[in-house]
Amino acid sequence: MGLQAIDQERLTNYMQRAEERAAYFLGYPIARDFDYSDLYPLLKLPLNNIGDPLVESTYDLNSRSLEQEVLAFFADLFRAPADNWWGYVTNGGSEGNLYGLYVARELYPNGIVYYSEATHYSVQKNIQLLNLRSIVIRTDERGEMDYSDLAQMLHMHRDQPAIIFANIGTTMTEAKDDLVEIKSRLRMAAIKNYYIHCDAALAGVYSALLNLKPGFDFGHGADSLAISGHKFIGSPIPCGLVLVKRNYKERIGKAIPYIGTVDTTITGSRNGHSPVFLWYAIKKLGREGLQRRATESLTMATYLESQLLDRGIQAWRNPSAITVVFPEPSKHLRQKWQLATENGCSHVVCMPGVEKTQLDEFLKDMQEDARVSGEMVESLSS
Ligand SMILES: *Cc1c(COP(=O)(O)O)cnc(C)c1O
């Protein structure tokens, strides 16, 4: 028996509305160009990767073997030390960041977390959950960490281990903190006990694919890093991935007889479908296909920035960023295009799936919006 007519109608309306809203989705960093229809039969199965991805479980209805290949792909991309890495597919970037900080705390229980004021909102909460001390570092006007402020704070607390939380693409302006600068400030303060976690949720994957500067991977000095899977790669279900140096995390995780594996992850049950989506994307596109998508995103961002400037709108981008920042337009436009807005600025993130025709429609709206608000200012002042 199916749904009652009234519920069926409600569902049909909802599904139609979701499709409509997907056509006006420019303000969040979410790829939309995926097609996972080959995997739909798996939606009939309760896949669950409960516990450690590298240790078999009695819960055998899982996708661990594919998850391991996904982890290996990213360990390679981010140059994790060959026999000394570990990780798992998370529910998203936030969980990966929490895990990185958790490992850092187990290593340095009295460490101080240094993170910039442009850091993702979830991080402060996670620092509270972990009961860690922290210091917020200023940023420049484009969202990058102010290294002289960092140097000053490190100097004042040089008797404590430092846990650096670096942004590889901030949420609002896609600014990247530079590990070379950070490490030089740690050296200047003569702090030997430190840990660097990179929040690469937003920009990590395409930055690594295109070898963009500044580098942030394990070879550049990261001790752990987190990415989101539903952002650049694309997934119908939010997901992510965390990688840490294996020797650091060895103090975490107990053997649990009930699941027949070790409890090394933050949550118990873990989504068994999202690793399959990631696996499918990696295999289907390959590194070259992923690189091509990254280059296309950059092309779209360059186009949008220059077109906005041509229309007299003060748009800007950080170097090699796919996020275009501009003064906030009217509320109507922000709602129509689902534009994230903060402190008078909005942005469009040119993730894969953003098309030129869509940008042209958006540009038309922006131009009309600027004209109307210009007229309003004129009529107010006359
Ligand atoms: C999106 C994002 C996060 C959070 O990731 P989720 O996948 O939404 O949990 C953290 N940091 C930055 C910079 C992000 O852009």
UniProtKB/TrEMBL annotation:
| Cofactor(s) essential for the protein | pyridoxal 5'-phosphate
Tell me which family the UniProt entry assigns to this protein: Belongs to the group II decarboxylase family.
Top-tier EC class: lyase
Q: Where is the organism placed in the taxonomic lineage, from the top? A: Bacteria, Pseudomonadati, Bacteroidota, Sphingobacteriia, Sphingobacteriales
The record, for NCBIfam families, names: PRK02769.1 (NF002748)
Annotated EC: 4.1.1.22
Among Pfam families, the record links this protein to: Pyridoxal_deC
Could you confirm whether the keyword Lyase appears in this record? Answer: yes
Do you know which SUPFAM superfamilies this protein is assigned to?
A: PLP-dependent transferases
Molecular-function annotations in GO? histidine decarboxylase activity
Q: What is this protein called?
A: Histidine decarboxylase
This protein's UniProt keywords:
Decarboxylase, Lyase, Pyridoxal phosphate
Which organism is the protein's source? Answer: Olivibacter oleidegradans
